[in-house]
C-alpha cells in the first residue's frame, strides 16, 4: 500500500487531496504465511504462490522449467521483521487519515470475502464508467 510512512503521506498531500483511504486489516500470521509462500522465476519475474498459484511442477517455472527461488525478504523470518517494521511506520499514517475522517478499514483473511465490501464503498464514491454503447 501507499503511503507507507508519514513522510510519504505528507509528500502525497503536496500533490493531491485524498478524500478516501482504504486500510485492509489482515492478521499478521495470514500475511506472513502468504508472503512466505511466494517464489519467483528470476529471469522473467513470474511470481508463484505455493498456496494459491503454485507451479505445475514444484520448484520450477511453468514456461521454462528453470528453478524458482525464494527471495531473501520473502523467507519467514524476514517477512515477520518486514511486517513489524511496516506496522510501526504505518500507524501514524493510519491515525492521520482516521483524524481526517477519510479512513475506511476492512478486516479479513480472504480477498473474495473482503472485496465485496470494498467494491460497495468504491461504487458509492465513484460514478460507474459507461462504455460508448451505453451513452
TrEMBL record:
The answer to whether UniProt assigns keyword Nucleotide-binding to this entry is: yes
Q: Which InterPro entries match?
A: Adenylat/UMP-CMP_kin (IPR000850), Adenylate_kinase_lid-dom (IPR007862), ADK_active_lid_dom_sf (IPR036193), P-loop_NTPase (IPR027417)
Q: Looking at the Swiss-Prot or TrEMBL record, what is one Pfam family this protein matches?
A: ADK
Q: Which GO terms describe its molecular function?
A: AMP kinase activity; ATP binding
Give the keywords, sorted: Kinase, Nucleotide-binding, Transferase
Entries under CDD domains matching the protein: ADK (cd01428)
Q: Where is the Adenylate kinase active site lid domain?
A: 38-73
Q: Which family does this protein fall into? A: Belongs to the adenylate kinase family.
Protein name, per record: KAD4 kinase
What is the originating organism of this protein? Dromas ardeola
